[in-house]
């Protein structure tokens, strides 16, 4: 019994309490209303929600789906979004499963269908709108399913009520056992849906033309803050666009649903129509240059297979229990009956035994399935990677990862593409991953096991590098390769040239692959020169194929014959192995010789006999840093010749453990050397003060008394060279060793009047002095290189605060192998316990400030949701992708600045009509004036001699004077700002010369900017040509620029978060994590540092964790917004200046128009007066009458 209080459909009568009975399995009831509400948050990518409904049509074996909108001004959003397919449809019981949470009949390991979770229809529709209604036909039954959040909210119902009425397709009569329930369901539909009567509902069923199919209508669409829908259906009447998405910097599949639907499936077998126009779906593997397939096998993908094994094991155990129970019952019944041979007893026993046998067979079968899946768990999984070059649009590159033919991830950069260079640029990869290998998330926009997905991307990166080697583009020249296909610009994002020869070259390499509109088979067309620019119709069928073997629908589809490549692992040759072995032998021999050159010191008397140049550094502290330094910096610059030939200090043996007896000290034996030179010794501390240091200086000091744990070593002799004295060699060696310590220093370098932070990665001695190679943390790649050689003592270089010895974590923005090794070595160092670590409260405050910074400057459309920042831990913040964050922020800032130029252009449209009208009227007046003058001259020449002839001569003379003014009028055209159409593109320029040609007036236009490779700098054009137009005048209005992010609420949130007490139940972040947070915080402050801030920018480099916590963030944000406002105002000022120039041109055109009209009117008046003197009875009142009269006189001739 279900008791639901419903509002009556008519407002005039009171709301009754409706009681009706429903069976326990009725589809009308769902679990709870909050479950429906939560579905709308599943899809962050809106097109992914639309794709869910397209997936349902594909799984229903539909051959066509229409996605269109219908205008409904009375609904929220103003229109409904409809999905109509010709699939198998659903009967009432199947419609019940559709609306139940997590109910799916497609869930099986071997299934090739996309849906697996049973939530696609609900999550997709609830993300797009608030309500949806579904109409479906199958087996002569018409079923309507209605799910409305509006209904539940207005009726305040917690349980979800889903009306599900059914009609007969032939008779249109209800199919129900409970008329009262049917009446209530239809009443709800008529009240809360857009269809208010049964006739309107039947009209929707008529749209399903076949015997089966489904129509889903979503309405009351979600709105954005500007009260517009998230989907833009007006800008392009043939597409559905993502509202508010900029044209630049966004992939077409993220902006256009037509582009996204074209690549949604790896092997499209369904026609998709958007707004009535067919989508040209693509098979990516057939759209690439030199495609190649690589087979990849791995045993790493186990998560999904292990889940299937556990599931099969559970089912096998359950079946085994059932079989044992049935067998036990059969045996018990047999014992109970004993020798009873009655017919009924035998039948009962046989029935029990048959049931036991059947359950035993089922248990054995499930046991075999479990064993097979267990064996398959150890078997490697095979995937096929397909790579090819996108020569049509090279900027659209990356990996397309599909799951059961459905696109999950697109434009994923892997391997060499992550480095951002031209290597592997333009290469597209395609892979289809089955469910048994990787399982997608519920929204089908990612994979559930992130670890295994990253392993897949690494594998694709390795194979991508192999493909790049196999096709040999780098060997022939990357720039030359792209030039061959029409990519003549250095800008990577510029489209290729549209010249015929380049189009033909691209068409020759990639044959056209098109899908038959009838049989849905893919056909590859042979290359034809005349078909390079041919546009094929949407209704293309196999009979139109010029290939005679593939011009019938019953012909088999040809599978792509792709060459197969193999991944070749780098193996060392015999010569390389021999060199490596020789090098190891040489190193061991040097160590052995160094150990033989040691002397045992047993007393202080032995120490006095030693040379003065000794050092007491322990061997472990002397040799270990050198060894580690050599391993950490494999890319060190080559040594100078005299340093390279000088022998290095041999290793010193490790000191023995501490004992009560004095231990003999190992001293290196002196070799015959020149007189001792001053050496540089460094004072070092040894634990518990047991180690002392001896400093060598020019005056010989007394040797320090030996201690049980002190090792004294004598530097080896340095051989003399004929090029210079030994002292010079030693001086260079010491200076080089000192400079070698500069590696890893944090510095700032001034480039183009801006300071950029970086790290010293290499040191070398040059002619002007010591040079550093600095690798920058982050720079605008378009203007500044990633690294640069600078002089150490230059004014453009300054040291930052040196890194603490506890943690030398490399920057998160940049990094290479050297920095990773340095970071690893630094983490292995023992922390300095003399320096107090930042307190837990300080670290928590740093984490809170970091979150506030990330939220305040958060760029739009970033890969990580903004809401996730609030829950990030310290370790997650350290691993935050700052490089992508800064790049996305710059894209948003550039888009903001570009919007001012766009708005300025939009304002000029207001003046455009006025300017164009003035120009048109000016041309018309000049034409009339010229025509009138010509007619008058012709007329007066036909008039007889006499008094009128004399007057005619006077008039003709004056007319010639006026004709002489034409060059002066031409000169006024010089300097005009115009736009000229060249190669289907408009370019701005200025008129520099004017001349009269056979076809009319000609202008010589000098362009402001054109691609010099395709278009000349200037060009002669006809003044009245359609390819020439005056630039639009501006409007005087100005608009206030917007800010990108930030408001007082976020600042208050940050302040409240800083006042919160830290959670002491969680382990405190490590010291290295805190140091990394401090480094990241400094980087953020420097990157967004506002001009004229009261704290100098240089002081940020030396701020401690406590000083950063006390940083005045509110004032910082305010000053940043002032600077951003100033930047936006500068763009606005430039736009206003351009607008004023256009207005001046418009005013000049209007002034010339008024002058021409005055001349025309004066000439007309003089002509009328002249004619009236010749013939007094002439009565001319209008300009048209005057023109007609003159034309009539010229026609008659007398």
UniProtKB/TrEMBL annotation:
Pfam families named in the record: Chromo_MORC2_6th (PF23327), HATPase_c_3 (PF13589), Morc6_S5 (PF17942), zf-CW (PF07496)
Segments forming domain CW-type: 507-561
Protein name from the UniProt record: MORC family CW-type zinc finger protein 2
PROSITE patterns in alphabetical order: ZF_CW (PS51050)
Compositionally biased residues, Polar residues: 806-815, 1037-1046
Organism field: Acipenser ruthenus
Major localization listed first in the record, in broad terms: nucleus
Record's keyword terms, sorted: Acetylation, ATP-binding, Coiled coil, Hydrolase, Isopeptide bond, Magnesium, Metal-binding, Nucleotide-binding, Nucleus, Phosphoprotein, Ubl conjugation, Zinc, Zinc-finger
GO molecular function, one term: hydrolase activity
Pro residues bias locations: 648-659, 697-708, 716-725
CDD domains noted in UniProt: HATPase_MORC-like
GO cellular component: nucleus
Residue ranges, compositional bias (Basic and acidic residues): 567-581
Region (Disordered): 560-581, 593-730, 797-843, 1024-1075
Gene3D superfamilies referenced in this protein's UniProt entry, alphabetically: 3.30.40.100, Histidine kinase-like ATPase, C-terminal domain (3.30.565.10)
Skewed-composition ranges (Low complexity): 660-670
